[in-house]
Amino acid sequence: MTNNHTELLRRHKSNPILTAADWPYPVHSVFNPGATLLADGTTLLLCRVEDRRGLSHLCAARSANGVDGWRIDPHPTMAADPEHFPEEIWGLEDPRITYVPELSEYVIVYTAFTRDGPGVALATTVDFHEFKRHGIVMSPEDKDATLLPHRIDGRWALIHRPVSSPRAHMWVSYSSDLTHWGGHKLMMEARLGGWWDANKVGLSPPPIETPRGWLVMYHGVRQTAAGAIYRLGLALFNLKNPEVCLKRGSQWIFGPEESYELHGDVGNVVFPCGYTVLPDGDSIRFYYGAADTSIALATASISAMLDWLEQDG
Ligand code: BMA
């Protein structure tokens, strides 16, 4: 057992890097952004923005250096359209972005807040200005989903987190056309008892493809007498069979500590939905929602996370 979790992810000194006060139109809170690097090197965050009705939409923020100088779209970039997509009646949340070379498109998998709870919806875009919706791909209650960036043995793979109350585990499902999904496999179970990741786990940002396997950062939800604590852990999965877990860390690596993570609409939450990898191929920036209120940044090294898993997994 090691106790070096404080070194694996380092908070940026200007955290939180984006708050509601930065928005060009009135909003309540901004959090849980998907992230990607555009072809010209611009960092794009697709932020979850909650308005004062309590409903969320998605809004793009772009920055040349990924830290500051954000250019935020003057209007909601992707707003709910319940007239045409009734499953979006209560908004869009928690997008994960995957660039898919085969399609030359970005695939955005997000939570559509339906009348019956959260479901998984999929949309595609080339420019983050226009979006093609493909509708619900996993019926409620299901969330924390992302698409892997390429087919595996001819099939697309979608990681998601259905709820079988009170427990919730990560699953992977397969499709040949991004529309019809099957071959459902349990990927990773929540632990039991007193563990930090007992009863409820979910994918956080999209998996990181490494020569050793898919490196997955996931959240564990610890229920306490004072409410839930959202912390992050690591696991490694087989590249050809993503339902096969090769390693799973025993300890969490990152949890709420700073005031902007401890206090907010939902205190004690760190919730990354995206990352960008720097040109060295190893340095990684996680963009995370802090206390369901603001957006923060933490940096890490992919090889250091893999090495940690070798020891702790
Ligand atoms: C999860 C998701 C996240 C949220 C977190 C903490 O279930 O709904 O959007 O950040 O709860 O409230």
UniProtKB/TrEMBL annotation:
Q: Which family does it belong to?
A: Belongs to the glycosyl hydrolase 130 family.
Protein keywords: Glycosidase, Glycosyltransferase, Hydrolase, Transferase
Question: What CDD domains does the entry give?
Answer: GH130 (cd18615)
Which organism's genome codes for this protein?
A: Candidatus Abyssobacteria bacterium SURF_17
Identify the taxonomic lineage of the organism of origin: Bacteria, Pseudomonadati, Candidatus Hydrogenedentota, Candidatus Abyssobacteria
Q: InterPro entries, from UniProt?
A: Glyco_hydro_beta-prop_sf, Mannoside_phosphorylase
Q: What is this protein called?
A: Glycosidase
Source organism, top-level taxon? Bacteria
Stored PANTHER family: GLYCOSIDASE
Gene Ontology molecular function, alphabetical: glycosyltransferase activity; hydrolase activity, acting on glycosyl bonds
